[in-house]
Amino acid sequence: xxxxxxxxxxxxVSQLGLGTMTWGNGTDPDEAAAILVAFHDxxxxxxxxxxxxxxxxAERILGSLLADVVPRSxxxxxxxxxxxxLGDERFIDASRGALLSRLDxxxxxxxxxxxxxxxxxxxxxxxPAEETMAALEYAVASGKxxxxxxxxxxGWRTAQAAMLRRGSHAPLVSNQVRxxxxxxxxxxxxxxxxxxxxxxxxxxxPLGGGVLTGKYRNGVPADSRxxxxxxxxxxxxxxxxxxxxxxxxxxxxxxxxxPITVALSWLRNRPGITxxxxxxxxxxxxxxxxxxxxxELPLEIQLALDDVSAPVLxxxxxxx
Length: 320
What we know:
By secondary structure, the protein is of the alpha/beta class. It has one domain (about 5-210, about 265-300, about 315-320): NADP-dependent oxidoreductase domain (TIM Barrel), CATH 3.20.20. About 40% of the residues lie in helices and about 15% in strands. It is built from eleven helices and twelve strands. It has helices spanning about 30-40, 55-70, 95-110, 130-140, 155-165, 190-195, 225-230, 240-255, 260-270, 285-290, 300-310; strands at about 5, 10-15, 15-20, 45-50, 75-80, 85, 90, 115-120, 145-150, 170-180, 200-205, 275-280. Helix 5 (about 155-165) packs parallel to helix 6 (about 190-195). The longest helix has 17 residues, at about 240-255. The radius of gyration is 19 Å and the shape is globular. The two termini are about 35 Å apart. The model has no long low-confidence stretch (mean pLDDT about 95). Pfam families: Aldo_ket_red. This is Aldo/keto reductase.
């Protein structure tokens, strides 16, 4: 797996990232260990987690594996803070105090003395951006974090945050956002903002929550994540989404490969993308995702997928 610079920073990450959101909640420690070993053996380095994933259990599982299975020095360890959960309720708090407390919690969960990348998980409109960004500055100055970024930031928030960090010892290097053939909204404002300020884009949900694999074409399989979570997939059954899924399946058939390979290969070639983060729930899912690294889509297929999934642009985005 190639190692790519994250934005215009000196941080190098693998061209696919490994997400851990299901660890401790659908993926047990043994399966997680097998996934991490396979990812490491394939040259993967970027492992993404968050203090809120499974109420800290994802970080604790990952921390135990860094001690016993894969050397910490061979992992680009990324985590996020800003979201807390109590039962089914989600709380957003990106205040300086909350973020730094959650950073310390992440370090304890993981059993490490620093993170390679620490990101604000979601913007908090109740806290001044200056305060949130000051927490990132302190995290780097304290030695607990090497690089900082954001996640789920809109175009204007990305630009605002990047300007606040510009010229500092802790400039932003990344924005982790939802992006796939089914969800190209970031192309309107987020992608241009990241390009302007030198942020690398780390797409999550690159397979549209599994929809692009084609497994939901004839209903919801009993062993799928959609069934386990009782997920409402109605918004993926409109004619446009169905057309995209069918186009991916047709391309996969023509190339004698899988829809996963087609969807990830398309995404890796998009402007500004550094590393899609694949949340593999099982070793088999990771193996399928890794196969995408061996395939480059023919230009005509790339353009056909661009066309069928193109986001709607209106004023003023259409002006460029």
